[in-house]
Amino acid sequence: MTYQPPVRDHLFIFRDLLELERYANLPAFADASLDVVEQILDEAARFTSEVLAPLNAVGDKEGCRWNPDFSVTTPAGFREAYSQLVEGGWPGLGSAPEWGGQGLPHVVNLAFSEMSSAANMAFSMYPGLTHGAYSAILVGGSEAQKQLYLPKLASFQWGGTMNLTEPQCGTDLGLIRTKAVPAEDGTYRISGQKIWISGGEHDLTENIVHLVLARIEGAPAGTRGISLFIVPKFIPDADGEPGRRNSVKCLGLEEKMGIHGNATCVISHEEATGWLVGEENRGLALMFVMMNEARLGVGMQGLAQAEAAYQAAAEFAKERLQGRSLTGPKNPDGPADPIIVHPDVRRMLMDARAIIEGGRAFLYWTALHGDLAEASPDEATRQKGRDYMALLTPVLKAFLTDRGFRVCSDAMQVHGGSGFTEHFPVSQYLRDCRIALIYEGTNGIQALDLVGRKLAADGGRAMMSFFAELDGFVDANDGEALQPFVAPLLKAKAELQEATMWLMQNGLANPDNAGAASTDYLHLFGLTALAYMWAMTAKVAQAKLAAGSSDPIYAAKLTIARYYMDRVLPETAAHLAKLKTGAELVMALPAEAF
Amino acid sequence: MTYQPPVRDHLFIFRDLLELERYANLPAFADASLDVVEQILDEAARFTSEVLAPLNAVGDKEGCRWNPDFSVTTPAGFREAYSQLVEGGWPGLGSAPEWGGQGLPHVVNLAFSEMSSAANMAFSMYPGLTHGAYSAILVGGSEAQKQLYLPKLASFQWGGTMNLTEPQCGTDLGLIRTKAVPAEDGTYRISGQKIWISGGEHDLTENIVHLVLARIEGAPAGTRGISLFIVPKFIPDADGEPGRRNSVKCLGLEEKMGIHGNATCVISHEEATGWLVGEENRGLALMFVMMNEARLGVGMQGLAQAEAAYQAAAEFAKERLQGRSLTGPKNPDGPADPIIVHPDVRRMLMDARAIIEGGRAFLYWTALHGDLAEASPDEATRQKGRDYMALLTPVLKAFLTDRGFRVCSDAMQVHGGSGFTEHFPVSQYLRDCRIALIYEGTNGIQALDLVGRKLAADGGRAMMSFFAELDGFVDANDGEALQPFVAPLLKAKAELQEATMWLMQNGLANPDNAGAASTDYLHLFGLTALAYMWAMTAKVAQAKLAAGSSDPIYAAKLTIARYYMDRVLPETAAHLAKLKTGAELVMALPAEAF
Prior knowledge:
globular; two-stranded antiparallel ribbon; 56% helix; 5-stranded mixed β-barrel; homodimer; alpha+beta; Butyryl-CoA Dehydrogenase, subunit A, domain 2
């Protein structure tokens, strides 16, 4: 059995947890009634499980092929699947009506993205990056650029890329050397080499729109001298169709541990023709439009691979007969019991559920705030939405990928030796997932972004707002029934607050204290956020059960919520203890001692 | 730079921590003066770094090739390296003088094994399993079998394998179906299919000696009906040289996530001629001779891959220029600072050091007890040695591989995007390391072995002895200077004791409580054991510094010891809290809810 999209859990989130219908009065939500959302989820589940999932192993085994004419051939079946993606109208889910989209809330499109990523991460990166290019031009492009590019990108008819990294610069974009020389016609000649360009060349679309960071001749050094350019593979002709071939080409592909079906390209710009997007030297800010969207998407990828790996492990654990239950045979007529009877196997499956379902709630809850930041008529709601998106994006990116990778590793462990062979899908999930901890800013960079920028922004408004929301929930739910959830949440919140205070007191005195604390702080934050999600989930589930629902999901949610509080959340104390020891020992050895 | 064996740390362990010279009066140790050990370490470092390490990436990329004549070709260079291994006299390190070996303590050979494994894990598995076959025949074989096979195995002239797993049985060996039918000449006809046989076929040796678990016709069902057989690829002739080809062959190789240079074979026995080892139906006990040795070796592999990955990460962190230190430029004349200035990068490198060096001390300290179990003239010492080996082997196997894998993953993280490409070695370390959590009994099985068998054996004697040793150390070192190490050790020990009590009280009442607690208990144990190692290390280092040593290793050891106490050990509390919640929530969902 391949990956089966967890539509039931998505419905739980949309209907019960987020109560999407509360927002029916908002423009983006008007067309997203729960019936419509359910239909979309069902169709998305069909498309991703039937079309994309069967190509996942194919993409892994075949990989992409670079050809001496600088073209790249994607794995067998990818072209056909891409056509079906475009023809099925899926691109429209994520884009605005004026550019051909359906204008639905982003949070609904996110479910389709999650399913696509779980079914076939390498494939789904092609349209994923295209959507990023769409967003950057939507925010920063001129009217002419929008008219020319947005319809083609919104429909996925053309592909899009982000051209950031160069051999000497990954994280530190101030080191970019790619040059842009103004031409007389208002365009620029772009020259330089970019590496690790996902989808930088492929055979899925008739054109590829590169968004390229480069330095205009004479620009200031560092990050203040970087501009953003559109460099199309084929320069659009007068009708907006692909015309003359631009001098941008793929010199080769990276060999990687995973996502083999996605072409990771070395891209050479050789006096390629480029168009400035937005203002000179303000390219980084625009690139961060793509980057922030991408970061949320990468957190989603961690979650998606974890879900797919969990499903494979659960299936294996129910079918594999090996040994007997410690409490007596559960399958007495068979040669052995299925390994799901063993508590240590259960522990791994339950850990997975607690992280995946809690993480999914956290992701969609945050994404809804992102929608409200745009769609709400209320400025306070919009501001809170913006604040939460800024504050929580690094947490989602790093926490969901770190923990998602651990879930994938546990899923392999459930498989025993089978999991290490490539006959079973879990090795690919583990290998594919691993990149998500790295790209779009390593998880360490996310942690630094969180403690160095996001916490203090606007006088700490976002963080105070988050704490106030937790306090409000705890105060409003002080009854007996919710105590098993609210009490641990309150404890975790107190630890997070203590850690935040510690950072405020010690991070300014010595910034290395903030750096040394950052990753533990981020995990403490993520664990606390999931405790909030599970407490809200428990509240909803209790209410549904009290109202007489016999749907087994509610009892299961209550069990997993208690499991989370008992068996996952105790980790917060260690993060707090570690981070409060500061930077001294972290930095004590001289560099040459390593 | 490829892997550089950490000879300095091995010397620290042998000379300062274990004080090997204390044992000069024992037969096995008489020829292992520190001078000799140092010479061996230096030569081992040269051989493994110059001959084995350069073939590591080759083996990963090329893998092994199965040929239609059922032969297997190892990667380019493996045959030559194997010849050098044999000619260099390295096989002798690990075997007894009567079979051509040097009779040195096992703990000395372990250093060579660790270096070999770090340099080239896939390669080193061939001789590693050969040594396992040697040990099984040494313990269980008849005099004739010893005479025939031991010299060939001790010299690595012939290879050895373990033939356990079948498609329907991995962990649960009671399900074995391979049949043994007695022949008139006292041999057996062995028929059945074995899978995942490491080194089951290759071109490195003139013969391969399979040790095969099979069921003699009419034997009792389950594990009490399993016997052990020698099934040589070529049946030795009257001169003991490879003669007639036996009907055992390799039907194919597994595709795996890692250790591509090692041939993982499907082995078919088709009425192959086999010789019973030891008694009928007592095969499992003998196989556990190999297995226990192998388990310690697998823990070592986790450590070895972590060391190699750490070295790659440290080198990258010192060379890669990216961003600036949070406390002002450290490389003001360069375009950026080396990333080792960033506290979060340091954190990952320090975590690695704390686990690797503490884990190495734990491994060699335990292995020394294994030597004393054989060599000591004092029965109490021998008994303690046997007790510790039995108790600590599952802890070493699972803790060092779990934590070793995390170190490999952190080492990839230090590399950023480079780490995900196969241009850098760290992806291979991560992929190779991952099997160590699975084979020779998954880490979950180790945890179950620990709580289900080892804790209670002989009325809990081994565990009480371990606690008494910790108490003795704490009592004997209650001075001010050691407080930063002894106090956290005492706290961890109290937590481990509380967990042990909890298991005694709750594991019998409901065995699922023991199962649900097992992995957290094992990690709590491992963390406490490393705290003991670091406390002993700190004591030694303080003494050396007090005596005027200017060797920088002692100050570094003190720093890492404090780091371990502050930044790693706090995890114990979470393990205790989790395990004390018992099995209820772990087992609460019905199987069909997964």
